[in-house]
Write a structure and sequence with these properties.
Protein name: Tubulin/FtsZ family, GTPase domain
Helix content: 40-55%
Pfam family, one: Tubulin
Number of helices: 15
Radius of gyration: 20 Å
Organism: Halopenitus malekzadehii
Order of helices and strands: EHEHEHHEHEHEHHHEHEHHEEHHH
Structural class: alpha/beta
Distance between the termini: 31 Å
Largest sheet: 10 strands, mixed
GO molecular function: GTP binding
């Protein structure tokens, strides 16, 4: 894709969400007045008809009754829900993959990239999204599979469960991360995995949260905010970072997990760019040591008038970003860009995409619970209609261990 300046041509993203948690995130797109880059290329899918109905009801309460909303939702699988068993979610997706591809094609006539969304503590999204990505990347013999789908880039947002959720949810999350990162044969699965931790994001609250809203609403809104900043780099910019840039170098170095880190409404009359980058880094969406970052991108969204000033030029942003990385001891390839908006004259938003960082601070919060639940399964306790074979469990662990060891080299 070209690195020339764009004015009205966007990278065409589509949002594919699965499970109740993923559906909650994706449904917030519909409540926004415009989604340049996404438009109405959104599909919410679930194995549970009640959850899908609840999603549509939330949309209708926000937008009013619309006959077209149902076209963006589908139920798949022969069972009424997958519970919290990711193996059931994967099994149901496998038996319905032709229907899933057909539904995607119905709302996505074409796209450059898919953003898949799932919460990793559950069964439906956590089970189906890694399998769906794998199917697209390996190619499908479904008659709904079209040639343009061969070239789609697959990014994924995986949301880590709250720290106080039960061991099964923590077990699911560890398995989900491994399956998003790698296929069963050990090769790369998603082209880019964006991670956010519920507890960590919720702690970024500033006191303005709606006390009557769903506990996850503010978390989901921040995830959407980060995604919007991310895709703004493929719209009107001084120097385009496009979706191919997000995945090419990380895949080459074998470190393709990321977390967003954001600072919004920064006063350009008060703060310089390096300070803005530092404030963003303080708001990373997972617990992490920023200095372990192996690849990084910076998107500075500035109002049109401010973007024309020398101190917010492409060169100035790149220089400040490189200086910030040096000060932080980060020796990482990446890019920076200025994304232009028609917002307030002095307000600047910053997104850092920090990739390849040490995963231990995130995994440490779930590992004991993971081991506890794995032991229960090894003792023969069966949950749901699908079992997790011993060799499958071994491969899931080995894939994650190998990925982590590669990061440490």
């Amino acid at each position: 894709m070209s690195h020339t300046q764009r004015t009205d041509t966007y990278t065409r993203w589509a949002v594919i969400a699965s499970g109740e948690g993923g559906g909650r995130i994706a449904s917030q797109f519909f409540s926004r007045r415009e989604n340049p880059g996404v438009e109405d290329r959104i599909l919410v899918m679930n194995t549970n008809r009640t959850d899908i109905r609840n999603t549509i009801d939330r949309l209708e309460n926000t937008l009013g009754d619309s006959d077209s909303l149902g076209d963006h939702a589908m139920v798949f699988g022969s069972d009424e829900g997958a519970g919290n068993v990711f193996a059931d979610g994967e099994r149901l997706a496998e038996e319905s993959i032709d229907e899933i591809i057909r539904s995607i094609r119905g709302v996505v006539p074409t796209a450059d990239a898919f953003m898949h969304m799932a919460t990793l503590g559950g069964g439906t999204g956590n089970g189906s999204i890694p399998y769906t990505i794998r199917t697209f990347k390996n190619g499908s013999d479904s008659d709904a599979y079209e040639p343009w789908m061969e070239d789609v880039i697959h990014a994924a947002i995986g949301v880590w469960p709250y720290e106080d959720e039960p061991p099964q949810q923590q077990f699911n999350a560890v398995c989900g991360l491994s399956r998003l990162l790698r296929m069963p044969d050990g090769t790369q699965n998603a082209d880019m995995v964006l991670l956010g931790a519920n507890t960590h994001i919720a702690q970024m609250g500033n006191g303005d949260d709606d006390p009557h809203g769903h506990p996850n609403d503010i978390v989901n809104e921040r995830l959407i905010e980060a995604f919007d900043l991310m895709i703004s780099a493929g719209r009107e910019t001084q120097g385009v970072i496009d979706v191919q840039d997000y995945v090419s170098v990380p895949s080459q170095i074998g470190a393709y997990h990321f977390t967003p880190a954001i600072a919004t409404d920064m006063n350009a009359n008060v703060y310089d760019l390096e300070y803005m980058f530092e404030k963003a880094a303080e708001n990373a969406f997972v617990p992490m040591d920023v200095s372990t970052t192996k690849t990084a991108f910076a998107i500075v969204r500035a109002p049109r008038g401010l973007a024309s000033d020398e101190e917010f030029s492409e060169n100035a942003v790149n220089s400040a970003f490189e200086s910030w990385k040096r000060d932080r001891g980060i020796d990482a390839p990446g890019m920076s860009t200025v994304s232009i908006t028609d917002g307030a004259r002095d307000k600047v938003d910053v997104l850092l995409l920090l990739g390849g960082f040490d995963l231990e601070p995130l995994l440490d919060r779930s590992w004991d619970a993971f081991e506890t639940h794995k032991t229960r399964l090894e003792r023969g306790r069966r949950l749901g209609n699908a079992s997790i074979a011993a060799d499958q469990m071994t491969r899931i662990e080995e894939n994650l261990d190998e990925y982590i060891r590669f990061l440490e080299e």
